[in-house]
Design a protein that fits this description.
Number of helices: 18
Organism: Roseibium sediminicola
Strand content: 5-15%
Structural class: alpha+beta
Order of helices and strands: HHHHHHHHEHHEHHEEHEEEHHHHH
Pfam family, one: PG_binding_1
InterPro entries: Lysozyme-like_dom_sf (IPR023346), MltB-like (IPR043426), MltB_2 (IPR011970), Peptidoglycan-bd-like (IPR002477), PGBD-like_sf (IPR036365), PGBDSf (IPR036366), SLT_2 (IPR031304)
Distance between the termini: 39 Å
Largest sheet: 5 strands, antiparallel
Keywords: Signal
Radius of gyration: 22 Å
Strand order of the largest sheet: 4-6-7-3-5
Oligomer: single chain
Protein name: Lytic murein transglycosylase
Length: 398
């Protein structure tokens, strides 16, 4: 499945993730040097791909390097909030109310979208809320300048040059104004924050005006999001996340992403739904975002689509949980999780785990998948409950 580059969601500020690599010229040709010569090369490539010289000129004529974009790219924030803290912050009464109101207001569009692409309204609505607060906060970076800046910069030109050429195609279609279209610092546009290549590939005219304008048209945003999520592999008619109660004698090493049993097998081990019915025949992983004493969820195959949208575990679990709330699920049972680690302690733990031979990636204080896996393995070796939640007790044991 194609992964797209994700910058911080304009409102939620989740981690930059994803990967979208297209065929491009060599690095010497595609980045750096005189900016106007670089833009001339972009125009030449765009025209060679069938785009009009006029569209390229209109797009690139006023393009400028945006130093704020480079600063943001060099100093990307890191996502270190816990699931409980983040979900409480972003799933507010305001968003629940507005989410329900928007699902009602655009019920006909959502029905059309689900009939075509199979993605339920609450799933799209949760992304709509977290990405831009239902379109209210879409970012104020000039999109062409942002893409031109990052394409010219030699850090990741293979990611951004194709996006700049896709922006030229959007200008040719009349779906982007080079002077006035704004969005996120990494070039995402509109209510659900999508990159130009994805808009070209999956953009849908939801309101029948002959254009795909994700900034202004909720109908376009809904239909386009549905088409994109279907492309990522959404399984029609299947659940994505379900809160459950777990017995305290569970073998915790069997929990976590990538370790699946059928819903029926989990139920046989004493896992019980807090709402609805467990889908007995579907594979699911048991997620414990803050260990065995905190909230617990069965994550079905459709949960993986959230990780394609954004690879931050806390963000994706929150988005998936938010969608269940919009679909009628009650507030989770918070439980009483063991205290976690602060930033310095997390880095200390990662350093120790790395010295022990575990691949935790960068020592960054983020509880990512590599750190979770290492924590779980070490917990098991030490005879501790292997629920992948790092605690001061674990750090002291090491």
């Amino acid at each position: 499945m194609t992964r797209r580059l994700r910058s911080f969601p304009t409102f939620a500020k989740a981690a930059l993730t994803g990967l979208l690599i297209s065929t491009a010229p060599t690095t010497a040709q595609q980045c750096g040097g005189d900016f106007r010569q670089f833009l001339a090369g972009v125009k030449q490539e765009a025209v060679s791909k069938g785009l009009s010289p006029q569209a390229a000129d209109r797009t690139l004529a006023g393009a400028q390097i945006d130093r704020k974009v480079l600063s943001r790219d060099r100093a990307q924030g890191v996502f270190k909030m816990t699931f409980l803290d983040f979900s409480k912050r972003v799933i507010s009464g305001y968003r629940m109310k507005n989410g329900a109101a928007n699902m009602k207001k655009y019920a006909g569009v959502f029905q059309r979208e689900e009939a075509q692409y199979g993605v339920p309204a609450p799933v799209i609505t949760a992304f709509w809320a977290l990405e831009t607060d239902f379109g209210a906060v879409q970012g104020d970076f000039n999109t062409v300048n942002a893409l031109a800046t990052l394409a010219h910069d030699c850090r990741r030109p293979e990611l951004f040059r194709p996006q700049l050429i896709a922006a030229i195609e959007m200008v040719q279609h009349g779906d982007l104004d080079p002077g006035s279209t704004t969005g996120a610092w990494a070039g995402e546009i509109g209510m659900v924050q999508m990159l130009p290549e994805d808009i070209i590939k999956f953009g849908k005219d939801g309101n029948g005006d002959g254009h795909v304008k994700l900034k202004e048209s909720a109908e376009d945003a809904i239909m386009t999001a549905g088409a994109f999520i279907e492309h990522l592999g959404w399984r029609r008619g299947e659940p994505w996340l379900q809160e459950v109660a777990v017995p305290q004698n569970l073998n915790w090493i069997e929990t976590g992403l990538g370790k699946t049993k059928t819903g029926g097998q989990w139920a046989a081990l004493g896992v019980q739904p807090r709402w609805g019915q467990i889908s007995s025949n579907l594979p699911a992983s048991l997620l414990l975002p803050q260990g065995r004493k905190g909230p617990a969820f069965l994550a079905y195959s459709n949960y993986n689509i959230y990780l394609e949208w954004n690879q931050s575990f806390v963000y994706t679990t929150t988005a998936a949980y938010f969608a269940t709330r919009l679909a009628g699920a009650p507030v989770y049972t918070q439980g009483n999780p063991d205290p976690g680690l602060n930033d310095a302690q997390m880095k200390q733990l990662q350093t120790k785990l790395s010295q022990m031979g575990y691949d935790v990636g960068k020592i960054d204080g983020i509880l990512g998948s590599g750190t979770r896996d290492a924590v779980q393995q070490v917990q098991q070796k030490l005879g501790m409950p292997a629920d992948a939640w790092p605690t001061p007790e674990l750090l002291n044991r090491l």
